[in-house]
Sequence to fold (158 residues):
Amino acid sequence: MSKHQAMQVGPLPDDPVQIPRLLTLKRYVDARGWFTESFSERALVDNGITTRFVQDNHSMSKRRGTLRGLHFQKSPMAQGFCTLEDDTEVLYKVSNYYSPEHEAGIRWDDPAIGIPWPLDRVEEVVLSAKDRALPSFEQMQSPFRYDGAPLQPLVVAG
Fold:
């Protein structure tokens, strides 16, 4: 398990701001090791998160620079992540079951999106064949309506 313990949630359908939230988990350490609550419905509700989660996912990436994404299904939010260390595990919750017929995605390095991935060189990126073949944002056949309002940058506090 990585030394970084956090839970990312969102954006949520009922959230007027529509940005992800990062909840830091408490870790209780003693001579035996450590313990953490990886899920607490009460903690989520206390933070204004009332979404019903139906599944936990757990991935392990062997190499630093492994990039998974950008994927979406049934929600107008693409998600993805990049590992910063070897042997990184990521656990995350989803609010709907996997549906292959609704699965889609966007290229991770699309300049129209401009995500500043924390990588030194493109050659360092470890991608699946499926992620390598994803279309650009412009080429994607979007199932979502866009109201034309400019998107705002997301600022994540560290």
About this structure: The longest helix spans residues 41-46.
